[in-house]
Write a structure and sequence with these properties.
Blueprint (H helix, E strand, L loop, with lengths): L3 E5 L4 E7 L2 E7 L2 E5 L3 E7 L3 E10 L5 E12 L2 H7 L3 E3 L4 E2 L3 H21 L4 H5 L2 H14 L1 H5 L2 E13 L1 H117 L4 H8 L5 H14 L11 H8 L3
Antiparallel strand pairs: 1-4, 2-3, 2-5, 5-8, 6-7, 7-10, 8-9
Length: 337
């Protein structure tokens, strides 16, 4: 009524009331009556504000990349910003009288864009793509030290780089190059795996051959041991045979000596017998037939004497006319002793 109005502000709004060119009150969560024809209200939002951004920048190797991220800030020095920007608020229309509050975010983004550009220009394409966290830290530090940001009385709450992506053509080229590298590494891995398998197979074959060689060596050692044993046994047998042969030779020598002695004895006996017979024959040289017969018949039995008698009869058969032999005589002649 009569231009006096009541207004209430939120805790996130910092209010400065000017009346007739003087500050009447300021602070947050204010509510008061004012005379609208002579009152100006400065309303500064003190809550944090998130501003997304996306920049197109060139790397040191002249490749275009898109830097996408988000920036958070808030106003901490209301006196500074109220003198630099127009935050005059129209309560009736419930809007600012200028676009300075809207431009503040753009000014902050412009500062961030300059700092991002400064760092991106020093990086190559591959390095920039893999440096999102590093770039965010560098730009955040620079924003905290930036004079323009400090003059506005702003506090940078955070900066995050969501993605750094090259152009579609460059991305496809990188993908192809990376794909080739991956395929190459896959081929190398396959080659190494096959080579490892070959080496393992070679080791297995070498172990098998070494085992076979060891078996052959062991068999040779066993064979050599058997041959040595057989040789030792054969040598022992030969020694025994030689000793037996020597013994037999010695026995044969003894036998030979005995035979020689027997031969000499037999020869001596034969010489004695021959001498005896020569003496007998010499003695009987002049004896007649009847005397010889009588000598022969000495010591003979009756059968032998009868046989001699029959022999004489047979020799003189031409002179005998008839001969009678009794059965008793034949029976006596044929009787076995």
């Amino acid at each position: 009524m009569f231009g006096v109005k009541y207004i209430k502000f939120q805790p996130s709004e910092y209010v400065i009331q000017y009346s007739q060119g003087k500050i009447r009150r300021k602070g947050t969560s204010l509510s008061f009556n004012y005379f609208s024809p002579t009152t100006s209200l400065i309303v500064i939002p003190i809550g944090s504000k998130d501003v997304p951004f996306i920049f197109e920048e060139l790397t040191s190797d002249f490749q275009t990349v898109s830097v996408q991220g988000n920036l958070s800030y808030r106003i901490v020095d209301m006196d500074k910003i109220s003198h630099l920007l127009n935050f005059t608020f129209n309560p009736r229309l419930k809007q600012y009288l200028s676009d300075d509050p809207i431009k503040l975010s753009q000014r902050v983004i412009n500062v961030a864009s300059v700092l991002v550009k400064k760092h991106i220009e020093k990086m190559e394409l591959k390095q920039s793509i893999q440096s999102t966290e590093e770039l965010a830290n560098l730009v955040f530090v620079d924003l905290e030290k930036n004079k323009e940001i400090n003059n506005y009385g702003l506090e940078i709450l955070g900066l995050s780089i969501l993605a750094i992506t090259p152009s579609k053509e460059t991305s496809r080229a990188l993908e192809a190059h990376t794909r080739e590298d991956i395929l190459k590494k896959a081929d190398e891995a396959l080659y190494e795996r096959r080579n490892a398998a070959i080496l393992q197979e070679r080791k297995i074959k070498e172990n098998e051959l070494n085992t076979e060689i060891a078996i052959v060596d062991k068999k040779r050692e066993i064979m050599e041991a058997e041959l040595e044993s057989q040789l030792s046994s054969q040598q022992a047998t030969n020694k025994i045979n030689q000793e037996q042969l020597a013994f037999e030779i010695e026995q044969e020598e003894v036998k030979k000596t005995l035979v020689n002695l027997e031969v000499e004895n037999s020869k001596a006996k034969a010489d004695a017998k021959s001498y005896e017979l020569n003496q007998i024959m010499e003695a009987l040289r002049n004896a007649d037939q009847n005397t010889l017969k009588a000598l022969i018949s000495i010591g003979k039995n009756s059968s032998e004497l009868i046989a001699l008698a029959f022999q004489d009869i047979a020799n003189n058969a031409s002179k005998i006319g008839e001969l009678n032999i009794s059965p008793e005589l034949l029976n006596q002649l044929t009787r076995n002793k």
